[in-house]
Amino acid sequence: MDSKTNGFLNRFFHLNENNTNVKTEIIAGITTFITIAYVLIINPQVLSSPFEIMGDSQMAQKISNGVFIGTCLGAFIGTILVAFYAKLPFAQAPGMGLSAFFAYTTMLGMGYSYAQALVIVFISGILFIVITALGIREAIIRAIPDSIKLAMTPGIGLFITIIGLKNAGLVVGNEATLVSLVDFAKWRGPDANVELVMGAVLSLIGLCLIAILSYKKVKGAILISILASTLLGIPMGLTHISKLSLNLSSQVNDFFEVSFFNLDFAGLFAGENMWTSIFTVTMLVLSFSLVNMFDSLGTLLAAAKQSGLVDEKGEVINLKKALMSDAISTAAGALVGTSTVTTVVESSAGIAEGGRTGLTSLTTAILFLLSIIFVPIISIIPAQATAPALIFVGILMLGGVKDIDFNDITNALPAFCTIVFMPFTYSIANGIALGLITYCIAKFFTGQKDQIKPLTLIIALTFVFRYAFITLG
């Protein structure tokens, strides 16, 4: 990269003002991308699974192919908006929790088609654009009590950690105790699962490598660990070179046939009772919107605090632009055939590598676009190689616990609920919701109702309504 390009990037993204440089930002962007790249593989599988379950394997393959390109494009649109408009180091991609809600509740459970479910996502995106333009989402952020804001960073840290532990295979399901440590002795015997054990071992090696390199202040420690673990995964039987293939013609054809601008507005409201259909769709839009809003808000607040991208009032720099990018990408993602696009927690991996500006997200966005061609290369990186990055970021984010006031139980309880419900319910939104609900209850019944802002109460009651009347899937 020549000096003129370096100079332009420095001026446009204000690199010097943010104590960073082109090399650091690019490494951070690559790290974020590699950490979130699993979405490109998992999202098509999730959104096509209802067809697989119903026995229509041919349509399942078409949807999978179409959603793959839609996922790449949706993530590219959202992340490039953040890069040039908000100039922040955050990536956007389809949220896996919302993808599961899209596939298993909206499609499989309630019987809506893929094209009709996309309409629901599109409407929620338009709703977001409107309320962001009106400043309502910023008002919601200001309505979140300080104790809950402080709890978001460690809560999301634990949430990222449990994702990493699951991807690593270090934590596995257990009928008696819900979760347990992987049985390392299963590398031998009649019930041996060598791949699971080797994956867990590889993740521990990768985590230690990140820690050692970080202690020695080696730039790109997370990225080096991911690449080294991928290479080490070859002799361990975890990195499968045989997956490499560059045949794209069928994916492109299926994208234009089933995913691109395939929104069925008429069919969505064509039930026997139009008013019932409108009510049901409204409830679904509300459910998608609430989860997306508080997932993205929580991620933005926590990641911005981690990277120091907050002003003297403690508010995220360019927050409204970041929120508008998120809103536009949700609507745009529906148009190209994918579920709700949102700010992803994996952005923290790039921030941990030093990413501070939109150049980080620009790098990630370009890689999302190139993935349409090079996804087979990405797909050979095993989950166990990227999992340590998430666990390590969890370590960094957990330090925020010390800022919470645990002496006042009416602040400690909401903060605690925010932290624990994020990882244990696998949802950032649930953590914030339970924090707000317990905050209002605790303050009201201890004679401190004057500390409850009207909008805080409205948000809490909205979540109560959502839990009582809208299925979680």
UniProtKB/TrEMBL annotation:
The chain crosses the membrane at residues 26-46, 67-86, 114-136, 196-215, 222-241, 274-294, 366-399, 419-442, 454-472. Its main location: membrane. This is Putative permease. GO terms for cellular component: plasma membrane. GO terms for molecular function: purine nucleobase transmembrane transporter activity. It is found in: Cell membrane. It comes from Anaerococcus vaginalis ATCC 51170. Keywords: Cell membrane, Membrane, Transmembrane, Transmembrane helix, Transport. Belongs to the nucleobase:cation symporter-2 (NCS2) (TC 2.A.40) family. Azg-like subfamily. It is a multi-pass membrane protein. InterPro entries: Azg-like, Azg-like_bact_archaea, NCS2.
